[in-house]
């Protein structure tokens, strides 16, 4: 049986998945939850780098699992995981990846799992981040930009997820600049909900700090964390 949690994906690389995922993990940790993290593939940086996605997820969550358990596969070049692995003469199958997940899935009550890049990014010869999400069986939280162009990216990502039968719990818009807020930023949250039928759970402001305490406090204020804990695949939001 799958553990509770969410698979964090984005509409692009550099969209703020780690910021959001680590922030949620840190906020839940502050509330006393036993939360773990898993980012199966990392490209272009070393797990041991304090500013790597893996290290940030581990630090924010307080996960006692090793960096190697949290990210079992890493590659030197900043490329799509499949391309980076191929250039190193390696082939990581979906089965190997799922086996790595199964070794740690019972170590925590709740998991935040992060993909790499967008949902259609190739992780292996015949599978993408989406296939990983489906195999693990947790609903998606989709992280996207706030401004002009984001509707197209969100719509395409959702269409791909639905094509594979992956449940999408909600959308988080990230990086709002209050000083440069245009019509797109003002209208997109409501329009995205109307267009997709999927709730926009939060519109997060751009912040300069990446300290665990600051990010966790922002997520505590901005997201319905209690509802995240109550969410169940196939049932949706409690009370909705």
Low-confidence regions: none
Q: Would you tell me the overall average pLDDT?
A: 92
Rg over CA atoms: 17 Å
How many individual domains?
1
Overall CATH architecture: 3-Layer(aba) Sandwich
Structural class: alpha/beta
Approximate helicity band: 40-55%
> In CATH terms, what is the fold-level topology?
Rossmann fold
Count of DSSP-assigned helices: 10
CATH superfamily: P-loop containing nucleotide triphosphate hydrolases
Q: Ends: how far apart?
A: 25 Å
Shape field: globular
Q: How many beta-strand elements?
A: 8
**Spatial strand sequence of the major β-sheet:** 2-5-1-6-7-8
CATH class bucket: Alpha Beta
Report the oligomer: single chain
Portion in beta strands: 15-25%
What's the order of the H and E elements?
A: EHEEHHEHHEHEHEHEHH
Tell me about this structure.
The chain has a single domain (4-230), classed as 3-Layer(aba) Sandwich (Rossmann fold). By secondary structure, it is of the alpha/beta class. The chain contains ten helices and eight strands. The strands form two sheets. Strands 2-5-1-6-7-8 form a six-stranded parallel β-sheet, with helices on both faces. It has a two-stranded parallel ribbon with strand order 3-4. 41% of the residues lie in helices and 19% in strands. α1 (17-30) runs parallel beside α2 (53-61), α5 (94-104) crosses α6 and α7 packs parallel to α8. β7, α8 and β8 (200-205) form a beta-alpha-beta unit. It is globular, with a radius of gyration of 17 Å. The model has no long low-confidence stretch (mean pLDDT 92). Its EC number is 6.3.3.3. This is ATP-dependent dethiobiotin synthetase BioD. It is found in: Cytoplasm.
